[in-house]
Task: structure prediction
Amino acid sequence: MLRDAQGHVLSGAAPGAVAPYDAAVRSLSLMHGDPIAGFDVAIAAAPEFAMARIGKAWALVLPNDPVTRAMARALTDTIRPLKLNVREAAHLFALDEAVRGARGAAVTLLERHLMAYPRDLLAHTVAVMLDVYLGRLPRVRVRSGRALPFWASAMDGYGFILAFHAFGLEESGDYARAEDESRLAAELEPLGFFPHHTVTHVMEMTGRPEDGLGRMAAREALWASPEHGYQLHLWWHRALFHIELGQNDAALAICDGPAMRTQRRLASHLANTTSLLWRLHAMGCDAGVRWRELAALWEGHSDNTAVPFTDIHAAMAELASGQENRCEQRLAAMRELAAGDSEMSHPYRTVVIPIVEALSAFHQGSYVQAAERLLPVRADLWQMGGSQAQRDVIEWTLIESTTRGGMRDVALALAYERLASRPRSIPNRHWLQAASALLQ
Result:
């Protein structure tokens, strides 16, 4: 009876298929290497190896792109006829929800599954990534925290669970513990994405851009090699540090250089460059032709039905590239979805549509209207998905709208709110000066 690296029985596996399968799961958890190629090797060695097919399907779901999600849906049909044990059937049930866009339902199933199988590394990795797009990152702390007692530090994969827990701590505001655990996880899994990512987040959220740039430069070889599938997001973080220091040219150079070189035509990748350019756009930096090129890359990779985070960013690219008609078509599709009763109807109705309407108003110069659309949804921004740092692009749009719209009291309040956590931020100081200069 063959088992994976964490001791789970693998239905349909063959001796030559287990090692590439375990390597593929590690690759997916690290975000380093090509997990799909690894799962393919395992499938070739054992065509009825259920978890190899399940792992590949999850790897196709996680980019949150309609193209790869359709590929995952087709793959699930090949899994159903296979012999599945209880653990594997639980994965398939969750997969079925995810491929139809019901990520919340998928995570609910994985949550229950992980209570019975707390050492299921693949399930942990998938649940973390789905929660990123659901905006429910404090759940990552809870879920990995209750699993940690079932892991020993010497176990294969322990560093990943520790890294996930640290990320959840960061998103819950426990920055000191998050940094300590992430630094330890980085020693255990030096090529892992999440340990580097979480320390970077801590430095972003606590206003330490110089420390962030220094650490990223010192460890660049570990997170920026060609094998790192999501290094683009870390380049995005590096650019944010430059913006916090008022070094917009350096941020734009990252956009034109390593960000563009490592960008893939997937929604989860395109959102990074879009978010960076929109921040610069809000600060008055002209991105020129970059917007039209980016909008062209978005075509076919955001379908207004399942992923609020990516749909919002696609709308940014459409507006900034002068394709307002496309954004209006997007809004129409969103309103149709919002009128229904699917899992995604509520967040699109209450958060996504107001945000996109506000972005459109901002683009048209209707700054008061933009601010008035955004102010009521601030408490619910988590429903758009992403981390606090990622959602901050909406807060940037809001405060810039209030200053341009002459809303002195609101602009001052928001500026002081931002300065309370990041008093040395150049953009935050700029907004305070701009708000203070408004006529009372």
